[in-house]
Amino acid sequence: MNNINILAIETSCDETAAAVVQNGRVVLSNVVASQIEIHQVYGGVVPEIASRKHIEVINQVINQAIVEANLTFKEIDAIGVTYGPGLVGALLVGVSAAKSLAWALDLPLIGVHHISGHISANYITHSDLKPPFLCLVVSGGHSHIVYVKDYCKYELIGCTRDDAAGEAYDKVARVLGLGYPGGPVIDKLSLQGDASKIKLPKIRLKNGDYDFSFSGLKTAVVNYVHNLVQKNEIINNADIAAAFQKSVVSQLSDKVLKVCEEKQINRLVLAGGVAANSGLRNHLETESQKRNIDFYCPELKLCTDNAAMIGSDAYYRYVQGERATLSLNAMPQLKIDA
Ligand code: KG4
Ligand code: ZN
Fold first, then answer.
1. Which residue, 97, 308, 331, 336, has fewest beta-carbon neighbours within 10 Å?
2. Which of the 8 DSSP states describes residue 326?
């Protein structure tokens, strides 16, 4: 069979990314232009600024992806693009670029769900991984437990009722004055802290419920910090980071391992920006081993937003015959199990 080269574009949040992926598993190029520094001054992503920055760099990023792949546009077989969920103005930049390329080069266009892309990042890192499996997807905007029935075919089992895990990390980091994005900083700092020094509430949802909730935990940290500020007492950021991380990791892991047990699933996959978290990766690895569950997570650079994961996902949609028309639009609230 001929090789299928997919040019993929991702602009759902604050990364302008383009990649070329061969046969869904081999990354020929993976260019990510991050806007993090621009948004840092505001303590989070400003949607209007994100859209404008995407427009400024998108053509350059796409060209670089082609050059680094050592290909020409003639050797591309299809264009894949994230069309949701995400920030509408940001998504529209990628979708418009992808539609223009598909039209100009007369190539098939494939619309990709952003979270589906995060899951597919694992197919790049693990050449032997195939569905079905259970996946815990934890990012800045989503926290899902998803049963992956087949490539790009999902059943949603649980999701967050309020904040996403990454969002909680970012908000806690903001109150501790640690900057944006908060996840990597808290993760690092937590290694120097003592979680037992601070009591945070254990989040319990009803039995048989696979949903998450992080806003209570976030509020508990915020209240704890404000209380110390009012009393003029010293705030130990490392201990707070350790206690917060322990609590997030145990909520996520307990739930997803419970689903594995109850549904007798022995293959577990981690995905999304928070999949880069050292505590979560280590804990799930250890606990999976104890339970004879095969555990997979993406290599670190494929955890946070990138276009290689979109290229992998688009390939599986391509071989299943999925095609989008030039009327493809950005869908900020796109569901994964629609
Ligand atoms: O998947 P992603 O790049 O963007 C979305 O789709 O939302 O995830 C970004 C999120 C941010 O909230 C960031 O703080 C979090 O992932 N993150 C982490 C770590 N690295 C990134 N959270 C915890 N620990 C990390 N090491
Ligand atoms: Zn993402």
1. 331
2. T
Q: DSSP for 103-160?
A: HHHT--EEEEEHHHHHHHHHHHH-TT--S-EEEEEE-SS-EEEEEEEETTEEEEEEEB
Report the candidate in 52, 61, 37, 46 with the shortest Cα–Cα distance to residue 93.
52
Contact 111, 328 (CB under 8 A): yes
- Nearest ligand 1 atom to alpha carbon 305: 3
Greatest alpha-carbon span in the chain? 70
Neighbours of 258 (CB within 10 A): 15
Give the tens place of pLDDT for each residue, 118-131.
Answer: 999 999 999 999 99
pTM value? 0.97
CA-nearest of 138, 129, 163 to 271 is 138
Residues 6+ positions from 145 with CB-CB distance below 8 Å: 134, 135, 136, 137, 156, 157, 158, 159, 210, 255, 256, 259
CB 84 near ligand 1, within 6 Å: no
Nearest to 12 by CA among 128, 136, 116: 116
Give how far Cα 83 sits from Cα of 12, 23, 86, Å. 8, 21, 8
Amino acid at 288: S
Q: Yes or no: say if 143 and 213 are a contact pair by the CB < 8 Å rule.
A: no
User: What is the rounded (10 degree) CA torsion for 125, 128, 132, 138?
Assistant: -10
**Could you tell which of 39, 274, 302 is best to mutate to test the pocket of ligand 1, judged by most ligand atoms within 8 Å of the CB?**
274
How far apart, in whole angstroms, are the C-alpha atoms of residue 302 and residue 86? 18
In whole angstroms, give the CA distance from residue 134 to residue 272.
14
Residue ranges, the chain, pLDDT below 70: 207-208
Phi, psi of 296 (to 5 degrees): -130, 140
Task: Specify whether the backbone of 43 is left (phi greater than 0), alpha (psi in -120 to 50) or beta.
Answer: left
Per residue in 153-189, pLDDT tens?
999 999 999 999 999 999 999 999 999 999 999 999 9
